Amino acid sequence: PIRHLLEDCLAHFDHRVTTATDGKQGIELFRAAKLRNDPFEVVITDLGMPKMDWHQLARAIKTESPLTPIIMMTGWGTMIKEDGITMPEVDAIFGKPPQIQQLSELLLKVAASTKRSN
């Protein structure tokens, strides 16, 4: 239900959204989009996912597409920042519950920074 809610809310801000049920399906969808020459501009992942954890997913995406921004969405966001835990594969950390307008702005910001880098 949360995935569908995020998808609906982000679509309201004119984002094209693809959702996955787990990390394994997420990387499969990422690869399929890349093969269709319609790559994802940004990937949002969760800290805890079934079948493939965030670290495996992020590492695979950055290996195949180093400039694709990855946003980590987690309820542990503030603690991660306070503890100084580094996540080199992650370009931004976004807390839960998400504020949709702020998430939309972050998506636009990281996508724009990637386009400037190309």
Tell me what the structure shows:
It is a single chain. The chain has 5 helices and 3 strands. The chain is mainly alpha-helical and about 120 residues long. The chain has a 3-stranded parallel β-sheet, with helices on both faces. The N and C termini lie far apart (about 35 Å). About 20% of the residues are buried.
Summary of the model, kept short:
The protein is 51% helix and 11% strand. The protein has 118 residues and is mainly alpha-helical.
- In percent terms, what proportion of residues is strand? 5-15%
Q: Can you give the helix content as a percent range? A: 40-55%
What is the overall number of helices? Answer: 5
Question: Radius of gyration, rounded?
Answer: 14 Å
Tertiary shape? globular
| Poorly predicted sequence stretches spanning 5 or more consecutive residues | none
- The averaged pLDDT comes out at 83
Oligomer: single chain
Strand order of the largest sheet: 1-2-3
Number of strands: 3
What is the structural class? mainly alpha
N/C terminus separation:
35 Å
For the largest beta-sheet, the strand count, sense and barrel status come to: 3 strands, parallel
What is the chain-wise order of helices and strands? HHEHEHEH
Which helices and strands, and how do they pair?
Layout: H1 2-12, H2 23-35, E1 43-46, H3 54-64, E2 70-74, H4 77-83, E3 92-95, H5 100-117
Parallel strand pairs: 1-2, 2-3
Give keywords.
118 residues, mainly alpha, three-stranded parallel sheet, 5 helices, 11% strand, globular
